Every structure is written in C-alpha cells, then in structure tokens.
Amino acid sequence: MRSKNYLKICILGLLVSAYSCKRDNFTKSSGGGSNQTNSANQTVVNGRLYFTDKESFQTLFDELKEAEDDKVASFVDEKGITSLRPVVTEENEKIIYEKTQERLKALKANPRFMATKEGPRRVENIEGMINDIDQLDMIIGDDNFSALLNSNGEIQIGSDIYKYTDVGLFIVNEKKYEALVKYLEKSNISDNLLYSTDPAVQKDYISSRPALNLTLMVPGDDISYYPGAGYGGGSSGGGGSSGNTPPVVDPNVQMANFINSLSNCSTYTTFLQSLFGDSDMCVDKYEGRRRVKTKAYNYNYYLAYNLGVKVKHQYRGWTGFWRKENADEIRLGVISGTFYYDYSSYFNPAPTQNRITTIYSNNNRYLFDANTYWAQTGYPGVYSMTGFSTQGYPRIFKDDYYIEDILPYNFMGYNPIINEGLYAALQAGNKQLSHEKLNQLFWNEAVKRLGNLWQSIGNSKPDNKITYSYNAVPLGKLMVAKTFYDHRYNTDDVGKTFDWGFQIGFTINSSGQISPSASPSSLKKPQEFKTLMYGIAKKNGGWHGSKINTANF
User: Fold this and answer.
1) C-alpha to C-alpha distances, 66 to 61, 304, 319, 494, nearest whole angstrom
2) Tell me: the pLDDT tens digits for 320-371?
C-alpha cells in the first residue's frame, strides 16, 4: 500500500482533530405496517423516514454516503418510502415505476398542484413527470440525501419534520404540521418540489431573511425557516482564464490531450442550484439512451453537508428513469479544487512566532526553518522526531500528501517568504483573486517544492492526491487547495468525497494551536468551492464526458 505522506508548514505544531461522527452499520428494518416500519433508531412514520435523533440520522448518512447504488436502493426499497429522487437500478426499476404512478395519483389529489396551469396535463404524462423528477437534482443534488427524503421533500428527526422547498427548509413540530401546510398556502409557497413557487415570491421571501440562519417564523406554531445560502448565489462555469491554468492530472498523455480539447461546460442555470450550497453539474448524452454526468458540489442541507466530486455513467431504462450502467473505463480528475474556512468571528490572535516548516511522512516529523524551505532548493538543518502519528487529522486534510502552511500573527503581505500575492488578496476581501492566487501558490510553489524535496530524499516526484492548506492567522482565514485523480475499469461511477457530515469543529487558542470542538460557535463549513475538473467515461469504443471550470483558471 502506498504510504501516506504529510507535509506541514507551521508556527508551532498544529494540532488538528476532526469533528467525527459514528461509523456504525445501519440496522435494517425488522417489520411494521403500512404507516410504520420498526428498527433500532429508524422507522417510517406517515410516509417519512423517522430517526430518533440527529446522531441516528448521521450514522445512516455516513454509512450510505459512499455506498453503491444497489445498497442505497435496497435500504430505501425495504423501508417502502417514495423517494424525492429515487436511486434506480435494473432490479428495482419496476418498483420505482409503480411508486411513480402512485405519486401521480397523490399529485392529482393535491388541489394546489392541480390549480397550476400545466397541472392537469402533467399528471397524465408519466414520461414527462419522470423527467421532471430527474431534474430535481437542481435543488437537492446529493443522490443519497434526496433518496432519504420522501416525495414531498420531508424527513423526520425526533419530533421535528424537516420539509425542503424551493424557497428553503422549513422545520415544524409533528403536532403542528397542518399549521405549516396552511402557512405555505397563505404565503403562496409550493408544498411540493414538482411545481414551482412564483419567481417573484421566491425572491422576496428568501431575500428578506438572513442567509445560513435558522429563524423562528411563526412562534405559536413552532415553524422555523432556513433559507440556505440565500437568493442569487452561484455563478456559471465555463468562463475565462487567468492565464495560470494548472496541468491536467491524468498521467496518460493521449488522455490529457483529449481532456484539454474539451470546452468548459455551462454548469449553472438557476439560482436553485445554489440554494442549498454549490451544485455544479454537466451532462453529456450520447447514443440516445446513455449519459455521463459530472458533478462538483458543496451541499449544505442544514442536517448534513457534503463536499466532493463525482462522475456517473447511466443508461435510460424502459421506464424512462436513468439508472447505473457500467462503462469500460471512467476517469475523474480534479486539476484544482479550492475552498476556505472563515474562523475570524471567534479567533484569539496568537503572539508573534517564527515560521517553521514541518514535514510528515510515515509517522516521522521533520522540521525546517521556513525561510530555508521556501527560498532554497537545499534542505539543511533537519530535525526529526519518530513515532508521530497524524491519524487524528480531519478527513478533509487526509491525502497522500498534505502540505500545511501557517502564517504567524506578525505576517505582512510584503513578507519575502513565498506568498504569490494570496495574503494581499485575502486582506482586500477579493474572493475570486484569492482563489486564483491560491491556485498559483499551490502549483507554482507548494507542489514544485514538495517534488524537489521528495526527489532529494530518494522518492518519486508526486503530482497527484495533494492537499495544501494556507492558514492566514492574522485574517482568520484557512484556505485549502486539492488535486485528485482516479481511474477505474468496469464501473458505473467514480467519486471523491472530501468531507461530509455536520462540519469541521475547531477552536484556535492564544498560541495559534487548533483543537477539536463540538461547540455550535466552533462548527465551520467550507465556503466558496471552486474547481477545474473533468469526468469522462469510455463505452463502445468512444470517450464521453465534460470539463467543469467554476474557478475560471
């Protein structure tokens, strides 16, 4: 097995630990009637998946997050719910089709849906409705999360029902559910994601509430509202270039040339893609019934979030639903992925410190003077310590190579140590320029110097599966850059989840050290995920796929 190598640049030793979640196996249902199916911590109540608490939900979400479609479909089908967006396989396609017929009957009995202009026509057109269900990934893009929601976009945790709509998330006590139904009708907000709220209502309702905050809307009825990221976020992929495009990470030269020939696809068509985080996707259809779907995402559903990339190969079955189909080969490459954490709201400035470089490899730790490491090609004055484990690092930083760069509190933008203008861009609050400068620092300096160092100690030069973090201590910003590549045969999807669950929890003390924390004020989600990536699949002798560029590198 390839050894893990960790490279760290820090003031003092950085202690990082994950806000971890349980990884217990989920318990399959053991019985139940038409309205309720029993299990240890999960039931189905009134057509909704029910969990006793958030921890129970998180356990299942963790278990299913990177599971094969067959496993997810088996769990949902056994529970018997009708999913918002079902996971379709060759084995359950008939079951899903029959549930969709029942779904149309329920819509036909919904007077608000039938009052829409196209409602009566749509309930008679199952093929068109199947396509509309497929398009719901614009709003709830995480395939497994959307499979756990019922056809009304609902799930229950304890006594609270969580209802996802096209203006955001509503939470209500189960005893007050009918009050929520009346509130949505009075506010002219759709009660089902298969018909839309009027765009003017969407804009006014979302814009009048603070983004990323849970607000109690109707105190007497215990109705709370979460507007997600707010209205109008997101941007279209396929833009220009900064002139600093990094190299394609595919090791095959012929494939690299093919990937370079792909144009940047347009990934953003509606604000709904950014309502619950960043959701960028491209679809390449071919041969009439096949497609390659490429995704880059940073979903935030309040209950859980998910940051990663994926490429899927699918076949349109006899029902009209798209389901998994193995391709001959699939390649997924993240040429550059960048995002950041903002911890300035609770940061206690560290005292002046010297900057040092620390390298982690095989449970060994090597220390350098930072000026020596960044300014020269030689590496004298090494101090090593054996028996140092990095096992406690958060998942998001675990990689074949991890470079950690921490600026001391007295750092200035004009500091001669390599910086590529990133600090100044962060200080100016220029988000796009910050991503561009981070990309330059990552490829022009961090990756290059990592390669020089590794070759100097007799190892091969790494060019893939590298993570770099830049901790601007004075500004309370932690920026992260990643590169990734995977290549598999005879499979239907390839993906990389960088992080998921609730969020990273950490605090920073007066010495600049980072420690784990589950305190609500310490939990931070990654923001502004930008990427240059590709996902391609080979079938019947031809390659198909897309290149996504939301970073505009």
Assistant:
1) 9, 14, 26, 10
2) 999 999 999 999 999 989 998 887 654 444 444 666 656 666 656 656 666 6
Report the alpha-carbon distance of residue 415 to residue 354 in Å, rounded: 13
| The token pair that represents 360 in the structure block | 């982690």
Q: Quote the pLDDT of residue 330.
A: 97
Q: Which residues pair with 533 in a beta bridge?
A: 334, 548
Closest CA to 74 of 60, 91, 62: 91
Of 147, 156, 140, nearest in space to 64 by CA: 147
Other Cβ atoms closer than 10 A to 56: 21
Model pTM score? 0.84
368, 359 in Cβ contact below 8 A? yes
pLDDT in tens, 435-475: 999 999 899 888 888 888 788 778 888 888 898 888 887 88
Lowest mean pLDDT among 135-139, 273-277, 308-312: 273-277
Do residues 281 and 310 make contact, with C-beta atoms less than 8 angstroms apart? Answer: no
Spell out where 124-167 has E strands.
154-157, 160-165
Question: How many CB atoms within 10 Å of residue 269?
Answer: 11
Give the position of tokens 């300014």. 375
95 — phi, psi (to 5°)?
A: -60, -45
Cβ proximity of 276 and 228 under 8 Å: yes
Number of helical H runs and strand E runs in the chain: 14, 27
Q: What is the CA radius of gyration of the chain?
A: 24
Token pair of 435 as six digits? 């991503």
Neighbours of 75 (CB within 10 A): 22
Name the 3-class secondary structure at 287. Answer: coil
**Residue 352 exposure: Cα atoms within 13 Å on the Cβ side:** 2
- Token pair for residue 149? 């929601």
Q: Does residue 501 surpass a pLDDT of 60?
A: no
Nearest Cα neighbor of 403 from 6, 1, 2, 3 is 6
Structure-token pair, residue 345: 């709201």
- Are the CB atoms for 15 and 508 separated by under 8 Å? no
In angstroms, rounded to a whole number, what is the distance separating the alpha carbons of residues 210 and 214? 8
Buried-exposed string 402-416: b where 16+ CB fall within 10 A, e elsewhere: bbbbbbbeebeeeee
CA distance 150 to 404: 42
Report how far residue 290's alpha carbon sits from residue 325's, in angstroms, rounded to the nearest whole number. Answer: 9
Distances from the Cα of 364 to the Cαs of 7, 212, 334, 383, 469, in angstroms? 10, 41, 28, 10, 20
* 369: enclosing H helix or E strand: strand 364-369
Tokens of 98: 């029959």
- DSSP output for 335-348: EEEEEEEE-GGG--
Q: Using DSSP bridges, classify how beta strands 154-157 and 48-51 pair: parallel, antiparallel or unpaired.
A: parallel
Phi, psi of 450 (to 5 degrees): -60, -45
